[in-house]
Amino acid sequence: MDPFVVIMVGLVGGLLVALILLGLFYPGSGADQVNWRPTRSVEVEVQNEIDDFDQMLEAANAKRRARGAQELTHEHMNARVAEDRRLADAQREAYLGEVEIDQMLAVKNERRARKGLAPITADEYRAQLEAERNAT
Questions:
Q1: CA 61 – CA 51 distance, rounded (Å)
Q2: Among 36, 89, 98, 116, which is most exposed with the fewest C-beta within 10 angstroms?
Q3: What is the rounded average pLDDT of the residues 59-64?
């Protein structure tokens, strides 16, 4: 091997090792070195979110008052959000259940094809699953 190549690879490798060791053992962080601080604290961010919610609720209530509808409260909004989340979770679970059945059906039909059997449809597979569920 050429001595120049060995020397260059050794220098580059040594430089990389030195930089890694410097990063590992130097006190503080990169943010400390450049004197970086977050522009807002977590408390300010939370307060801003609360203020935004209050402003949106007040704007919605102003429109509701103009129509003669009942005003919304924090509790009512929290209940609506909880219901929306429950519905979204139920839809997600139903979708994931369908995806899981489709995947299991694909595997089952692949095994059936290897055995020389005809594939089954999704409805037939769901009926089999329901029969197994009722049997237990």
A1: 15
A2: 116
A3: 93
